[in-house]
Amino acid sequence: MYTQEDEEREGMPPISIPTFGIPNEPELLDVYELYRPSMATRRLVSEQNRELYPEAFIEHERLGTLADLCVRALAKSQGTVHIAVPVREDPLKLRIHYDSIDVDLPLQECYFVEDLRYWRRVVLAKSSDKSLVLKKLLEYDWRGKGISIKYVELVEACPAAFWPEHEMAALAALVREHVRTMDIRHLQSHTDESFQQKMESSGSEPEVTSEETEELFISSDERNTSSLLSDEQEEECSDEQSAVEKEELQQSASKLKQPRIMFNEMPYDEEPEKAAEGHAEAGSIQQDRRMGRAVRNEVRQQLRDMQAARREQHEQRMRRRSLMRKKPVEEPTKKRRKSRKTTVGVFNMKVEGEKEDVEEKIVDKRQKEKLLKRIKRYDYPAEHCHHIDLSFVRFFDNLVSLILEFLGPHMGRDYHKRHLRFSLEDMMRLARGLQALDKLQIFRLRNSRMDRFKLHTLCGGLKDLKALEVIDFGYDEISDESGATLGTLLQRENMLKALELEYNHLDLQAASAIGAALLQQHQAGGTTHLQYLGLAHNRISDKALSTLVHYITGTEHVAELNVTAITARKEAVAESLGYLLRNHPPLRRLDIAAIPLNGAVGRRLICALEHNQKVTHFDCRGCDLDSDEEFEAAIIVRRNSFQGDHSYIGDETKTEQDIREHFKSIKHPLLQKLEDERLRQSECLKARPSLISTPSTLSVKSLAEEKEELQEYDIWAELGIKTKASVPQEVEASVSSHSRVSDQGPFYFDPNSFDLEQFREHIEHPGIGNRYYYFKSRRQQS
């Protein structure tokens, strides 16, 4: 069958004939693929028997000159270490040099490169964020991002059993001033061989005998929870420590609002009822604080017990090792008489037992069943899954954003749960490194398996960072028992701007701790406020939602609340969020998507939203609302946005004249953009230097004086030769004409000032387009 490919190859020699010499070496083969002749050239009849094609060098668009090829070859072979002097002095060749450098150069050989186009190539080739392609050269820190990516590659390539401290510290000292962000996702985990010793049931001694162990700093700002104290003694101690807090609560009890959440509120005029409600609320707040303190003390006590047990085990190992190192005492041998040999009968003969089968006790591939049983019995606990020393982040004191995820190495199909686990010691080292980052603003620890001990350790290193603004613990499997620890993150002088806790297992304890911390910060008169609180996809119950809403209502915190896909009942959601919409003025955004509601419950939320004139974003997708209710919610949000853009609406201090002036100042965005561009262009033209520099009168006068002096000096008279007198009038005339031209100002050429005769005179002159025929006619005439 005659195909399209056969038609294209028509007129060419058969494939079996080796007309073209294709090299076998990889380097030469790459060059051949780059400069081989095109198919259009090879299909020509006159080119069938040719083996060399110089036309390939001419037809290639990006080939360049031979000097450019040499620059590219030098750039690929030598990199940035040795740049030739001619290349360094020529900007065009230096541009070609940086465009030819490999993006996979080691960091030590390219950290000093200042060319932004090279670092942009590095970032686009290695970053997973594809939106960076849209950023221009001067809109992003390409050099800092590229250096950070190359350093993170070295970190992720280090095995978990070995961390080159001195080498990485020296490299960090070279690049620390450029690194602002760091994104670590795929740290190496321990290999299977490193777990063999822990799998064995014999409990062999570890090889490490150093007395240096990781000690966790446990804050002692609250009392110890000792097992020797009874419950009554614990209550007495907690009452003594919270005496000051009780006095503050009693003073501010009258200012607190009622804890009940209702739509139709009736004003209470009786003072005894208000006092009773204030005391009840103060009692609930005090009870929540007691519970949070008890939980934190319990975590601290468990950490202390773990440290004590670890220290005791270490001392036992040291004692056993010291005993094993001692030489045994040699007992004096006793001389025995030689006994007479007596004949032993068959029935009196001692028979040795069979030797043990050593291979039966070996657990490896020779005994696969035992090996599988041992592997299945060992669950790879988190305390054995260590990583490299994460305290290296302290080297980068200019770090602004740190993203950390324990996703393990790139597994592909070799998935194993040990790659995703990390130990408490990893968090201890990380917390010690975070304490040195005074400029850190964003911290994200996502896709990790946290527990309350690890979270308590990490929060100890985060709560002292004054510049911290965003904390993200999404997808971390945080349980509700860690709620008291999350509350400590909000007990700080400079409040966070965003706390993201999506996709966890938080409930009442976490909601109570977060709400109580925000209320306490509001009562203390904090200047900064929490803007975003994300609790989406958590197990938030009815009581947890109502408790959180009760605490944040009336404060300046939480302008954006995300409670998407929580597990609370629809009636509780409508009641709590309706109360929040009516009584929380700072609220601007509310996300309640994927919460199953019905038409009646949704109508209550729409009524509450209509009462609010500040919310500019209301996400109710997937809530089973009617299309009319969703449309009504969208109209209300657009109304609020319009009122926010036009501040004169609802302002009684504005007059009609002020409103008219405001409307006159409003312009279309495209028109405003055009006017701004023209204004910028005019300012640029004003600052531009003049293109034509005219000689000043002083320079003309100095030129005339120099010419007069030259004419007055007669060299022939000095030599004794008689000549005719020179005529100085011509010089004066030329100087005067030059001065007249200079007095007229800068030269200005008007291309449209020619008349018809001048146009006919100059139209036949050869220009750029017909210069070939001009020179041809000249040659023919000569």
TrEMBL record:
Residues 317-326 have a biased composition (Basic residues). Coiled coil: none annotated. Residues 189-292, 305-341 are annotated as: Disordered. It comes from the Eukaryota. SUPFAM superfamilies: RNI-like. Residues 305-316 have a biased composition (Basic and acidic residues). This is Blast:T-complex-associated testis-expressed protein 1. It comes from Drosophila guanche.
